[in-house]
Amino acid sequence: MQESTRLKLFAVCSAVGILSAKLIRLAIEHRSILLDCSPNFFSTILLSVIFHLDNFNFADSLGKAVLASTTLHLIYELIQIVLPGFTYDPNDLLASVAGGLVLYLIGKP
User: HEC states along 2-63?
Assistant: First the structure.
């Protein structure tokens, strides 16, 4: 992985960690669609970065990591349609795709 890409991914992960803590607090205080979907957005980003790390050797390119992470999130969300006790939300699908796209656009060389 190129050093510039590694630094970008580190910056994204740091920002996501800080932002998610603030958004969780806001989501508790104020109910909104954007805040309710934010965990899907950020978890897609974080899972993509984990897949892309050299130590895991799961995905040799950021594009493959983003595709794998986004696909897993979409499958998980769609499975909730048939599972009792789970809540399906189409906005979560959009948030997962948006998270993958944002990371791909930030991290591509």
Answer: CHHHHHHHHHHHHHHHHHHHHHHHHHHHCCCHHHHHHHHHHHHHHHHHHHHCCCCCCCCCHH
Give the number of domains in the chain: 1
Chain segment 46-74, per-residue pLDDT in tens: 778 777 775 555 556 778 888 888 888 89
Neighbouring residues of 79: CB distance < 8 A, sequence distance ≥ 6: 86
Distance (Å, whole) CA 84 – CA 61: 37
Cα–Cα distance, 93 to 100 (Å, whole number): 11
Residue 80, domain extent: 3-107
User: pLDDT for 20-50, tens place per residue?
Assistant: 666 666 666 666 666 667 778 878 887 787 7
Contact in structure between 62 and 107 (CB atoms under 8 Å):
yes
Q: Is the pTM of this model over 0.85?
A: no
Distance CA 49, CA 61 (A): 10
